[in-house]
C-alpha cells in the first residue's frame, strides 16, 4: 500500500469519526421553568444531568420519590435532575404548571428543577426532546420516548450518554453507578 493510499485511508477514518461525533449539546437549549422563567441549560456545564419526562397520574408516578432521593444524595453540585411534565401518554399529566408544581411539592417534596409542561413526542415535540430522541440531531442514538418517566443521561460536557427505559427505577445500579463514576 502506497503512502498516498495510507494517507487517504487515514483521512477517511478521521472524517468518519468526525461525522459520527455528537452534534450539539444540552447546552444549546433554553427552556422555561415550571414557574415560567427562562432557564439556560448551559448553566449546567460540568454537571451530569438526568432528564426525565414526568406525569402525576401514572402508575410510575411514585418514581418522583426515588428521583428526589437520588437528587438528595448526589445533587446539586455535580449532578442535577430536570423534570419535564408531559401529557403525551394516556392524558396522565392534565394539570397546569401550578397544579403540577403543587402536586410534586406536597406529595413528594420535589426540590430538583421542574420545567414547564411540554410535548415529548409527535408533531409538537419540544426541540430539546427532538435532540434527545433523534440520532440525526444528537449524533448518538435514536431513543423514542415510550412512556412517562423515560430517563436520558447527559455527561458533564452536555452530550447524550444513553436513554433509560421508564420502568427502570431512578435508583437503579445502572443510573447510580453512572453518577458515581
What is the topological layout?
Blueprint: H1 3-20, E1 30-32, E2 38-40, E3 48-54, H2 63-74, E4 79-85, H3 97-108, H4 127-133, H5 135-138, E5 151-154, E6 160-164, H6 173-180
Describe the structure.
- The structure is a single chain.
- The chain has 181 residues and is of the alpha+beta class.
- 34% of the residues lie in helices and 16% in strands.
- The strands form two sheets. The protein has a four-stranded mixed beta sheet with strand order 4-3-5-6, covered by helices on one side. A two-stranded antiparallel sheet has the order 1-2.
- Helix 2 (63-74) links the parallel strand 3 and strand 4 (79-85).
- Residues 10-20 have low confidence and may be disordered.
Q: Approximately how much helix is present in the residues? A: 25-40%
Strand runs, count: 6
CA-CA gap between termini: 43 Å
Rg result: 18 Å
Which sequence of SSEs, written as H and E, runs from N to C? Answer: HEEEHEHHHEEH
Query: Uncertain segments of ≥5 residues (pLDDT<50)?
Result: 10-20
As a percent range, the share of strand residues is 15-25%
Concise account of the structure shown:
This protein has 181 residues and is of the alpha+beta class. It has helices at 3-20, 63-74, 97-108, 127-133, 135-138, 173-180, and strands at residues 30-32, 38-40, 48-54, 79-85, 151-154, 160-164.
Keywords:
181 residues; alpha+beta; four-stranded mixed β-sheet; two-stranded antiparallel sheet; 34% helix
Amino acid at each position: 500500500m502506497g503512502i498516498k493510499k495510507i494517507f487517504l485511508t487515514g483521512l477517511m477514518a478521521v472524517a468518519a469519526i468526525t461525522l459520527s461525533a455528537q452534534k450539539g449539546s444540552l447546552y444549546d437549549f433554553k427552556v422555561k421553568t415550571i414557574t415560567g422563567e427562562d432557564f439556560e441549560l448551559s448553566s449546567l456545564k460540568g454537571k451530569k444531568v438526568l432528564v426525565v419526562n414526568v406525569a402525576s397520574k401514572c402508575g410510575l408516578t411514585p418514581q418522583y420519590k426515588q428521583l428526589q432521593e437520588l437528587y438528595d444524595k448526589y445533587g446539586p453540585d455535580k449532578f442535577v435532575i430536570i423534570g419535564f411534565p408531559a401529557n403525551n401518554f394516556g392524558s396522565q399529566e392534565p394539570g397546569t404548571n401550578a397544579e403540577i408544581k403543587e402536586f410534586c411539592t406536597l406529595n413528594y417534596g420535589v426540590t430538583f428543577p421542574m420545567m414547564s409542561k411540554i410535548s415529548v413526542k409527535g408533531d409538537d415535540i419540544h426541540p430539546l426532546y427532538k435532540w434527545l430522541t433523534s440520532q440525526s440531531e444528537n449524533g448518538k442514538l435514536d431513543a423514542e420516548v415510550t412512556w412517562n418517566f423515560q430517563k436520558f443521561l447527559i455527561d458533564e460536557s452536555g452530550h447524550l450518554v444513553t436513554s433509560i427505559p421508564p420502568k427502570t427505577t431512578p435508583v437503579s445500579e445502572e443510573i447510580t453507578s453512572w453518577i458515581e463514576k
